């Protein structure tokens, strides 16, 4: 980081204003506003547009983007490539130049493929940023609106509230906030910044009335004027983003890398063991033995595997983003597939977060707010005034223009319908102070001054939180009546009966402050001795698509636990409506959870009950995530507030809400839902399972060719040379390079198998490469391919009159037949590999059930493979290099059924497996 951070002194540092004038952000606010040619009411939209054109978008340019030469070099120098280089060196040293050149060609082709795939993966991940535009609230044309942060310009008046990432350098105009500036200064403790804290002669970053891009507001609210954007900001000047984000290796890639190494090691050992075997048993010259050892080594090093996995994960990430789930780490895709518990909140995720007040209950009775009619009721009017004053939302001019918390928007709309202007300034109340809402207190209050000079506290919040702070209630005549125990009881019953209907209930209260009394300094002082004005109940309809998503969860063996800040009965009603709870759920409130021991919590989470954690705090979320992880579950957890960040980090998949969530929650999460929708989580789990399955499919495919590749060399060696070598090393290399990558890539795009969401989640401990998979690859499909390839070889040779031990070398009468026979082995390998590709498409179900031709990419891959094989067999220049010979129609006819035999044999194996294990998943392939 630059020295600017700590040493810049006021007066020394200045910022170039949009007009080109150097301005000092710490000068008096009015001077600063003048220099910025702005005002407390912000800019006009037209002026902001003009400035945007002049200063450019509020973005940081990354430096040092030209990384690709390094990336390309890395493809040639990673350990598996080095192994191949060693093989090249060996071949060169013993004088077999064509093989050395061939291996270099293999290395180059592999590196090129891997490079292209990784670049594509990188692009897919970088494109995700477009799905998550950062928004900021600014004043334009005198009203509050949400804009993309890239559109911020100097002079804009910015609203900053809890959880916002500050996206430009700004001077506070009013309010006070806690700021986490660790990204900029490295200080881990939040610092307080307020408009009225003016410092002189301190470093710019330490000035207590300035906030900087890249820092985060963790508490409070403020209004600020932007004085620097984009590369002009302190963050831009430090250009901390000069290096791009490093991609960490996912557990899956790690596992596969380890296995790849294991295989490489086995190949080296096999190669080394082959040399004495071939020289002593088969009487081969040392030189030839080295040639074969090198061939075996090159054939079996699975160097193409990792890039294919990376690309498959990246494609998964891109698909998820299109469906509304933006994943920030590639590895999240595989974790999603293993998720077995989803802890979800209610508001906005299960419901639409479109609140509408339906009922108000005051001392004068219950009012149905859905019926529009003029009402003249003092209590109701006071209730409406309190709902408007203690409110941070704005209704805007038309429908859909409202900004702010949906609960507060609903209250403003209701107050407006009750005849109270929908904004506190028009109402004639000026806010002196705010004790903001937080999900631990579950209430908020404001200190407001009326036009007549009187000062009042207005408060609203969860009834359990606010009612204990009320000592009286406003009656029909506007007089305060003490709240008796009986009345409290009646109110509690009223809250329960409204909550049971799935309504969200808030209590609203007020307190007048005497002129002589000192105004309250803390929320505790403000929110006491309150007078209850009434209860307001609002409807937040469940999202229609959630029902199907919840059913999908249940069939997929995924448990859904609701953790909500809302009332237990409200949550239970909504849970029943969307099908999460099928029996009477166990509802645990925040205070009950606080009293619960770790063991009791573990036992509760271990049971089968439908669970709802109500009135819970962010700490409760963290505790639940911890307990679930400790007991071996893979947990996905949603969250949206600043305080949810630790729980989001602790869960295996932290899920933040793109629309309603704070920037802090988004940053702490692994996945962001752009539509805040529970159904999207399930779509993501399904995609995660599919990607993981597909990765297993192509690992199987790539492993399956080891047996048929080794067999010809073994046959040759074990026959003691009586059988000529059925495949030359160059032919092996040609097969290896030409056939592996494209069908493997295509397998990464397979549609999901039927029954994908009917099987239980895979266990956290399960390895992507399992014993049964290796058995199927090496000993079942591999052996069948090997037998078929050898059958073709002997068919051609024996038909030409060959007897074991007869010479087949150049100049011998059988030489042409031998060349045709090795070409047959080559064709046999290709044909077997085509059958393997089809077999790899499903792990359990029949190929018919997913559609034989349903993966067009695979068909293209196979067409390419066949065209390459035809060129190798029939084009004279390639014949000359690879010692192949043209095959006759009867030979082609002999190999034609190979793919069907391989695939058919595996089809029978799968059928037997399904019969053996009992159930056959049914249904059509799912759309994803
Ligand atoms: P979920 O956790 O499922 O999203 P929630 O939105 O109800 O549920 P919180 O936002 O933590 O959770 O709210 C908890 C409670 O606080 C609410 O049930 C409501 O009673 C009260 N509350 C919510 N918003 C406000 C607000 N703006 N002002 C005052 N009280 C509020």
TrEMBL record:
<feature type="transmembrane region" description="Helical">
    <location>
        <begin position="99"/>
        <end position="116"/>
    </location>
</feature>
<keyword id="KW-0472">Membrane</keyword>
<dbReference type="InterPro" id="IPR036412">
    <property type="entry name" value="HAD-like_sf"/>
</dbReference>
<dbReference type="InterPro" id="IPR001757">
    <property type="entry name" value="P_typ_ATPase"/>
</dbReference>
<feature type="transmembrane region" description="Helical">
    <location>
        <begin position="259"/>
        <end position="284"/>
    </location>
</feature>
<dbReference type="InterPro" id="IPR006068">
    <property type="entry name" value="ATPase_P-typ_cation-transptr_C"/>
</dbReference>
<dbReference type="InterPro" id="IPR018303">
    <property type="entry name" value="ATPase_P-typ_P_site"/>
</dbReference>
<dbReference type="Pfam" id="PF13246">
    <property type="entry name" value="Cation_ATPase"/>
</dbReference>
<dbReference type="InterPro" id="IPR023299">
    <property type="entry name" value="ATPase_P-typ_cyto_dom_N"/>
</dbReference>
<dbReference type="InterPro" id="IPR050510">
    <property type="entry name" value="Cation_transp_ATPase_P-type"/>
</dbReference>
<keyword id="KW-0067">ATP-binding</keyword>
<dbReference type="InterPro" id="IPR023214">
    <property type="entry name" value="HAD_sf"/>
</dbReference>
<keyword id="KW-1003">Cell membrane</keyword>
<dbReference type="InterPro" id="IPR044492">
    <property type="entry name" value="P_typ_ATPase_HD_dom"/>
</dbReference>
<feature type="transmembrane region" description="Helical">
    <location>
        <begin position="852"/>
        <end position="875"/>
    </location>
</feature>
<dbReference type="InterPro" id="IPR023298">
    <property type="entry name" value="ATPase_P-typ_TM_dom_sf"/>
</dbReference>
<dbReference type="InterPro" id="IPR059000">
    <property type="entry name" value="ATPase_P-type_domA"/>
</dbReference>
<keyword id="KW-1278">Translocase</keyword>
<keyword id="KW-0547">Nucleotide-binding</keyword>
<dbReference type="InterPro" id="IPR004014">
    <property type="entry name" value="ATPase_P-typ_cation-transptr_N"/>
</dbReference>
<dbReference type="Pfam" id="PF00122">
    <property type="entry name" value="E1-E2_ATPase"/>
</dbReference>
<keyword id="KW-0812">Transmembrane</keyword>
<feature type="domain" description="Cation-transporting P-type ATPase N-terminal">
    <location>
        <begin position="23"/>
        <end position="96"/>
    </location>
</feature>
<comment type="similarity">
    <text>Belongs to the cation transport ATPase (P-type) (TC 3.A.3) family. Type IIA subfamily.</text>
</comment>
<dbReference type="InterPro" id="IPR008250">
    <property type="entry name" value="ATPase_P-typ_transduc_dom_A_sf"/>
</dbReference>
<feature type="transmembrane region" description="Helical">
    <location>
        <begin position="777"/>
        <end position="798"/>
    </location>
</feature>
<dbReference type="Pfam" id="PF00690">
    <property type="entry name" value="Cation_ATPase_N"/>
</dbReference>
<feature type="transmembrane region" description="Helical">
    <location>
        <begin position="881"/>
        <end position="905"/>
    </location>
</feature>
<dbReference type="Pfam" id="PF00689">
    <property type="entry name" value="Cation_ATPase_C"/>
</dbReference>
<feature type="transmembrane region" description="Helical">
    <location>
        <begin position="698"/>
        <end position="723"/>
    </location>
</feature>
<keyword id="KW-1133">Transmembrane helix</keyword>
<protein>
    <submittedName>
        <fullName>Magnesium-transporting ATPase</fullName>
    </submittedName>
</protein>
């Amino acid at each position: 980081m630059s020295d600017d951070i700590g040493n810049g002194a006021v007066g020394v540092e200045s910022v170039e204003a949009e007009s080109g004038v150097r301005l000092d952000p710490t000068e008096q606010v009015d001077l600063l506003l003048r220099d910025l040619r702005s005002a407390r009411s912000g800019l006009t939209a037209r002026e902001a547009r003009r400035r945007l054109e002049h200063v450019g978008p509020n973005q940081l340019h990354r430096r040092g983007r030209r990384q690709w030469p390094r990336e390309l070099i890395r493809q040639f120098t990673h350990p598996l490539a080095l192994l191949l280089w060693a093989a090249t060196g060996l071949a060169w040293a013993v004088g077999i130049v064509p093989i050395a050149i061939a291996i270099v060609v293999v290395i180059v082709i592999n590196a090129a493929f891997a490079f292209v795939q990784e670049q594509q993966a990188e692009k897919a991940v970088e494109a995700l940023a477009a799905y998550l535009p950062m928004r900021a609230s600014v004043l334009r044309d005198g009203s509050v609106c949400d804009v993309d942060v890239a559109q911020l310009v100097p002079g804009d008046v910015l609203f900053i509230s809890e959880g916002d990432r500050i996206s430009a350098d700004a001077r506070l105009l009013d309010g006070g906030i806690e700021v986490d500036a660790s990204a900029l200064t490295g200080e881990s403790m939040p610092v307080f910044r307020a408009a009225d804290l003016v410092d002189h002669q301190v470093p710019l970053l330490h000035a207590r009335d300035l906030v900087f891009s890249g820092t985060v507001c963790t508490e409070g609210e403020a209004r600020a004027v932007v004085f620097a954007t984009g590369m002009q900001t302190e963050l831009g000047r430090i250009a901390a983003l000069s290096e791009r984000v490093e991609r960490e290796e996912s557990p899956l890639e790690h596992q596969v890398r380890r296995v790849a190494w294991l295989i490489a090691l086995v190949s080296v050992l096999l190669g080394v063991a082959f040399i004495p075997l071939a020289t002593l048993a088969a009487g081969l010259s040392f030189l030839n033995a080295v040639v074969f050892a090198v061939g075996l080594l090159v054939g079996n090093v699975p160097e193409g595997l990792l890039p294919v996995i990376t690309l498959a994960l990246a494609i998964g990430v891109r698909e998820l983003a299109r469906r509304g789930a933006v994943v920030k780490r590639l590895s999240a895709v595989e974790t999603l597939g293993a998720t077995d518990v989803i802890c979800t909140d209610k508001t906005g995720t299960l419901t639409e977060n479109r609140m509408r007040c339906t009922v108000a209950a005051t001392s004068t009775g219950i009012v149905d707010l859905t019926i529009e009619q003029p009402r003249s009721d003092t209590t109701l009017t006071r209730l409406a005034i309190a709902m408007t004053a203690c409110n941070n939302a704005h209704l805007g001019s038309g429908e859909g223009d409202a900004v702010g918390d949906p609960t507060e928007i609903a209250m403003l709309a209701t107050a407006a319908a009750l005849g109270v202007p929908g904004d506190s300034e028009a109402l004639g109340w000026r806010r002196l102070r705010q004790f903001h809402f937080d999900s631990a207190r579950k209430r908020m209050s404001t200190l407001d001054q009326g036009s007549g000079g009187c000062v009042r506290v207005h408060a609203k919040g969860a009834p359990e939180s606010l009612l204990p702070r009320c000592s009286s209630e406003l009656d029909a005549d506007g007089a305060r009546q003490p709240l008796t125990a009986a009345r409290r009881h009646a109110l509690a019953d009223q809250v329960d009966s409204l909550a049971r209907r799935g309504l969200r209930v808030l209590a609203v209260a007020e307190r007048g402050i005497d002129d002589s009394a000192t105004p309250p300094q803390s929320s505790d002082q403000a929110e006491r001795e309150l007078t209850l004005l009434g209860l307001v109940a609002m409807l937040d309809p469940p999202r229609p698509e959630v029902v199907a998503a919840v059913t999908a969860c249940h069939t997929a063996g995924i448990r859904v636990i609701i953790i909500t800040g809302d009332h237990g009965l409200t949550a239970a009603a909504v849970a029943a409506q969307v099908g999460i709870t099928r029996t009477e759920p166990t509802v645990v409130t925040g205070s009950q959870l606080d009293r619960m021991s770790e063991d009791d919590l573990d036992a509760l989470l271990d049971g089968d009950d439908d669970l709802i954690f109500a009135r819970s705090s962010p700490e409760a979320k963290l505790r639940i995530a911890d307990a679930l992880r400790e007991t071996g579950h893979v947990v996905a957890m949603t969250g949206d507030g600043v305080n949810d960040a630790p729980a989001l980090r602790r869960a295996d998949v932290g899920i933040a809400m793109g629309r309603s969530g704070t920037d802090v929650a988004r940053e702490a999460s692994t996945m962001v839902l752009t539509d805040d929708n529970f159904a999207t989580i399930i779509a993501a789990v399904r995609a995660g399972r599919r990607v993981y399955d597909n990765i297993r499919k192509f690992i199987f495919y790539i492993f399956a060719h080891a047996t048929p590749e080794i067999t010809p060399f073994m046959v040759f060696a074990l026959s003691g040379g009586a059988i000529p070598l059925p495949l030359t090393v160059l032919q092996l290399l040609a097969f290896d390079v030409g056939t592996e990558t494209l069908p493997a890539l295509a397998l990464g795009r397979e549609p999901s198998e039927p029954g994908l969401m009917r099987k239980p989640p895979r266990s956290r401990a399960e390895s992507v490469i399992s014993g049964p998979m290796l058995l199927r690859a090496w000993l079942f499909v591999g052996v069948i391919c090997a037998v078929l390839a050898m059958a073709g070889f002997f068919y051609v040779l024996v038909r030409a009159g060959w007897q074991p031990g007869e010479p087949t070398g150049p100049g011998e009468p059988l030489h042409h037949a031998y060349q045709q026979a090795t070409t047959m082995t080559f064709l046999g390998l290709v044909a077997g590999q085509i059958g393997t590709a089809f077999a790899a498409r499903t792990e359990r179900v029949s190929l018919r059930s997913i559609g034989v031709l349903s993966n067009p990419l695979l068909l293209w891959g196979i067409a390419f493979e066949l065209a390459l094989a035809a060129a190798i067999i029939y084009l004279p220049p390639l014949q000359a290099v690879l010692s192949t010979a043209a095959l006759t129609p009867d030979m082609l006819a002999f190999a034609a059924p190979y793919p069907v035999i391989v695939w058919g044999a595996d089809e029978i194996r799968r059928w037997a497996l399904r019969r053996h294990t009992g159930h056959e998943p049914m249904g059509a392939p799912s759309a994803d």
